[in-house]
Amino acid sequence: MHPKRQKLWQDVAIWQDDFEKRLIDLIGERKLSVKNVVSIEDLSLEDIELIFDCTNLFKEFIVKPDRKINLLKGMSQINFFFESSTRTRVSFELAGKNLSIDTINVSGSGSTMQKKKESLNDVVRTLDSMHANIIILRHARAGSPAMIADQIKAPVISAGDGWHEHPTQALLDIYTMQAKKGAMERQKVVIVGDVKHSRVAGSLIRGLNMFGVEPRIAGPPTLMPHGLEKVFKCKVYHNLEKAIKDVDIVYALRIQLERAAGADIPSVREYSKCFCITPDRLALAKQDAIVMHPGPINREIDLRTEVMEGPQSVVEEQVENGFALRLALLYLLLGGERR
Ligand code: NCD
Prior knowledge:
The protein is of the alpha/beta class. It has two domains: 3-162 and 321-337, Rossmann fold (3-Layer(aba) Sandwich), CATH 3.40.50; 168-308, Aspartate/ornithine carbamoyltransferase (Rossmann fold, 3-Layer(aba) Sandwich), CATH 3.40.50. It has 14 helices and nine strands. The chain has a five-stranded parallel β-sheet with strand order 7-6-5-8-9. Strands 2-1-3-4 form a four-stranded parallel β-sheet, with helices on both faces. N-carbamoyl-L-aspartate binds at residues 85, 87-88, 160, 166, 169, 199-200, 254, 294-295.
């Protein structure tokens, strides 16, 4: 081997060895209390602290030029996505590959479910029989990840189920909020938009409540689930100007037109007139407020381009943190017996 290349490989081996040692030291005797992550409420606050601690370390990892590390070599991860996805699917796949897991992607249309009408249960039990080590599932039906988690030996992570929950999105969002603003209990948060059809909101409101935060929820009454204030600790507003006043964090949701949100509003134009985050509306929040969005963004409907690309936006940091967090979560769920 060329001496220059040899030196490069030696350097990689040294930092990777050091990284693994630091990871093992950081985790110590701690381990997650759960096998599956299908709801954010499955996790305890200690679990979330452990995930966030490891995410901090994986933030160093994701900027390394050569980051395929041998931590979970020989394991297999099935990404089972029945709905479209860019950020979530790619970050789970890349995280698996960077940890040296064999990753396999199965889409709804490419599986035997669509053409041959095999049930979801039978498909995942087949995958379980091949000793897949973990299944990541995104499905249009609420409750699908919980249902399969009950049937199989492999851990299951929900990558979003219908209008219900998207736990890893809430984890990366709360991680980002803390990283930018400090302790959660001091933060005033407003979540804006189509809460009724949003699994992101489903997990985020639950997660914020676990951290003692009672978010403000702003949107048209027709896009609010009935009894929201009775089920969760939150305050509902139908006027965005009031809801956004003096908040630290503005979280805009995507209007879910593919989930019939269009039937709940007079028109998209009317909706954006009242609920789009514009520079004027953002000026009502605290001066150093941050703006978040899970993506994909409907520009000029959920967020004005100036806001999305402006200095208060942390949308790209959310994506970066999501990648580090999914590396951490996979390692914590699968790395146990290797430590
Ligand atoms: C979300 C999803 O698909 O649930 N996107 C994501 O995972 N980042 C949000 C959305 O589609 O609005």
